[in-house]
Amino acid sequence: MARKVQKILVIKLGALGDFVLALAAMKKIREAHPKDHISLLTTPPFLELAKTCPYFNAVHTDGRPESFGQWMELRKRLKAANYDRVYDLQTSAQSNRIFQLLRPSPPPWSGIALGCSMPHRNKLRDHMHTLERHADQLMYAGIWPDAPTAPGTAPGPDLSWIWKAAPSDRPVPGGVRPKPYVMVVPGGSQHRPEKRWPVENYAELCRILYSRGFDVVIIGGPAESSLAHAIQRSVPRARDLTGRTDFQRIAVLATKAALAVGNDTGPLHLAAAAGAPTVVLFSGASDPALSAPRGKVEILQAQSLSELAVAKVAQTALSLAPAPASA
């Protein structure tokens, strides 16, 4: 008799850096359910990235309903889907509300929602890095018995599926022999200005890196074009790609970058996961022990990022990516 195909739901709503880190657990869930039908419940910004991802058979973006009617539509859809198991990688008040919405008969649920059948009971979970915390949660759920949970031991996200599907063109056009380039991510969440290094510092850093023989490529959303323009006043030939790169393109650019440097924000997590040597700048507003990207990464932290000297960032950057021989 053929094995019944199970219907699995994974919940991850954002933000981008958190979503990128969660890809490691998503890969493990797919490995544990190789022939099952896995759906992702997320939000619209992650639709295209998730549709490209080999871990999911379906992607739904209604994970943050606002009105009563939207909540009822979500409940109706989830009830009708009749999932055999849910992996809640969001583990927030929002995903707890989704669980409670499905009472009196919610599906088997891995997470921390009150009353769920596969609770992550580790009392230290809130003090674990996201990668080890997710590994530990999947161990409690019974699909990763030898999960690496000691600090720094869980594998990072694997983005090879992105660049395998990408066209094999040159990532930064122009020039017969393009110079090695540095990806610079000077922006971040608009409601967290304390997580941004001052743009004038980025301008000075880019001037130093350009003088050492690197091209400069500035990454960010459309709202961060003003930051790119401020940097271009110091480095006129810096390439402004703000608002012109989707998540997949950022990862492809990172695979051939000599270096990525920027604030603790989603695009920098993508760059690090794609393999770029990365310098990430943390203020006292976040704890890198809980959320820093993994890979060839150097972390610089100051209580206030305005206190972080350009010389220190430049020295760290050049130690990760020595200046080109022709510089």
Overview features:
327 residues, alpha/beta, Rossmann fold, 2 domains, six-stranded parallel beta sheet, 12 helices, elongated
Describe the structure.
The protein folds into 2 domains: 152 residues, 3-Layer(aba) Sandwich (Rossmann fold); 158 residues, Rossmann fold, CATH 3.40.50. α4 links the parallel β4 and β5. The model has no long low-confidence stretch (mean pLDDT 93). α7 packs across α12 and α9 packs across α10. It is elongated and about 65 Å long. It contains 12 helices and 12 strands. It has 327 residues and is of the alpha/beta class.
| Helical content class | 25-40%
The number of distinct helices, counting runs of at least 4 residues, comes to 12
Name the CATH superfamily classification of the largest domain.
Glycogen Phosphorylase B
pLDDT averaged over residues: 93
Question: What Rg do the Cα atoms give?
Answer: 21 Å
